UniProtKB/TrEMBL annotation:
This is histidine kinase. Keywords: ATP-binding, Kinase, Membrane, Nucleotide-binding, Phosphoprotein, Transferase, Transmembrane, Transmembrane helix, Two-component regulatory system. GO terms for molecular function: kinase activity. Pfam families: HATPase_c, HisKA_3.
Amino acid sequence: MSAVVGLASSGLLSPWWSLFVDDAGQFLAALAATLACWITAFRHSGTQRWWRLWMGAATGGWMIGQFFWSWYQLFRDVALPSPSLADAAYLTMPVFALVAIIALAADRPAHGAHRRRPGQLVTVLDGLVVVGALFVLSWATTLGSVVRAGAATPLAYSVAIAYPVTDLVLTVIVVLLIAATASAANRVLLIILGAGLLCLSFSDSLFAYLVSAGAPGIPPLANAGFIAGYALIAVAALTPTREAPRWTVHPGTRWGHLLLPYVPVAGTGVLLVVQLVRGVPMDNVEIIVEVVVIALLIIRQAVTLGQSAGLVASRARLVLATDLTRRQLERDLHDGVQQRLISLGLDIRLAEASVPPELPELRQQLSAVMAGLNGTVEEVRELSRGVHPAILTEGGLRPALRALARRSAIGVELDIRLDGRQPEPIEVAAYYVVAEALTNAAKYAESTLVQVCVEVRGGYLHLTVSDDGIGGADPKRGTGLIGLTDRVEAMGGTLTLESPPGQGTHLQADFPLGHV
């Protein structure tokens, strides 16, 4: 690239040969990218093949446009009309490239992978929002005046706008995909493609400016972006593909990605306010694009709200399914293992009663076995109670909390103001909140007394658990309180924790009774 640009700009060649070297360098760069994409495509399968085929079609279309452009410049020695066949071929590049990028973004691990189509839709909407906002900014500052001055016809006007807009669309979508992709498998490819498209966008912006002004060509140095861009696309096609890990966890909230589309929109709003203050009217292009950007933002918010509602419902279904499984396991333990052990105990008692008096040692051995069996039955009973307390299913929250208080290692004061049963998922969630709070108070809080209050008021079940321990509880230091928070929020409720050091811990959970 540097050799082509340096030779074409050196002044050592005649103007015709300098132009020939410049155009040939661009043509060969696009040809190299096309061949790299198509040749490597047949070494891969699935989406890794398809994105290369589509990208090869994109670079091949641009190469044809470059041929027409060079023909007019070098052999006909006339300025290329706008629009022309070269424009038609050039503009196939962003169309096919967009399909290639979408195919690459949709690539997922082959084994048991899940394609998150709503997430991809939000990414595309973010890209369109950013593109629209950046277009308004560039149009209001420089691009609008340049295009209006140089475009003689509406068609020429549209073609002049198409170059920077399409490049901007591709570049922004690649940047968003790099930021939002859940897998690192294609991140290197996207980074290389993004760098190449950014180079193309830079030179295309200069191209749009000079063509709309009626210039026959652009300086070789400004064409460096075309050569570098297609060279980078060739490198991306030749880059080995690494399979993504099957399971990837990204903790925390990615605020940069969430806020990215709103930054240019805010900049657009500031610019429009400045224009209004200065008395500069908005033209039709600005108005249309702003309306489209606002509509896209509304659609994005609707999709995001739908995703959030789906996640909340999914979490609630997961909690309910877990509780159902625990209840089934408790029944299996109670009705299967526990009953079988009790039946064995009765058989041992019968055998012990039938032992002759002259065999006291055998009687003692059977008695010891019976004692051990009774202990096993009690352990199974405790295990089944911990999995899912049968008393909660049969009697409701009041007797279940009383049973918890009786088994607690520290004193518990209960204040239960309930009339009848509550929705079963709410009762289960409230029970486990109290159970976890009592366990934490006994293990870590060094408390001697826990006060539990449950009441229904204003369509909510209000639950408070307070102890007189050392305080200082921090949900970030353990999974117990985090799990409680997830369980409460899955029921549409809220969990509040106050635990100042030395002043005990106060836990409050509020459940909406109409949510379930």
